[in-house]
Design a protein that fits this description.
By secondary structure, the protein is α+β, with helices and mostly antiparallel strands. 31% of the residues lie in helices and 21% in strands. It has three helices and four strands. A four-stranded antiparallel β-sheet has the order 2-3-1-4. 8% of the residues are buried.
C-alpha cells in the first residue's frame, strides 16, 4: 500500500437518545478535535457530515488526509481527547475506514470500457 492521499470515513454511533441532537454533538466533537487537525501537515480539507436516514443515531464523517500512515499517527493522539465525549454520547468509539479514490472518467463522450462507441 502506498502512502498516497486517502479518503477517510469515520462512523459515529450516538446513543439513541441523542440522535435528535446529532448536529449539535458533531459540532461539539469538531470543536474538540478540529483545531489540532487543521494545523496538522496531513490535513487536506474540512470534514463533511452525513446522518443516515434509516439509523439517525449513525453519523458518517468524510474527509481527505495526506496519507494513511500520517492519519493513523494523528488519530492515536486524537483519541485521547475524545474519551469523555465517547462515554457520554456514543455507543462505542468511532469506526474508521480508508479508501483510495479511483480516477474514473465520468465525463459524457468518453469511450466505453468494452471498446464500444462514445455517447456522442
Amino acid at each position: 500500500m502506498t502512502d498516497a492521499r486517502v479518503t477517510v470515513i469515520e462512523t459515529w454511533k450516538l446513543k439513541a437518545e441523542y440522535a435528535d441532537r446529532a448536529l449539535e454533538l458533531m459540532q461539539a466533537m469538531d470543536d474538540i478535535v478540529g483545531p489540532p487537525a487543521h494545523v496538522d501537515p496531513g490535513w487536506c480539507e474540512h470534514g463533511r457530515f452525513y446522518q443516515l436516514q434509516e439509523r439517525p443515531q449513525e453519523i458518517w464523517m468524510m474527509y481527505t488526509w495526506r496519507s494513511r500512515a500520517e492519519h493513523e499517527v494523528f488519530i492515536a493522539a486524537e483519541e485521547l481527547l475524545l474519551g469523555e465525549f465517547y462515554a457520554k454520547y456514543c455507543q462505542e468509539p468511532r469506526g474508521i475506514v480508508y479508501f483510495t479514490e479511483l480516477p474514473v472518467d465520468v465525463e459524457v463522450g468518453h469511450d466505453a470500457v468494452d471498446g464500444g462507441t462514445s455517447d456522442e
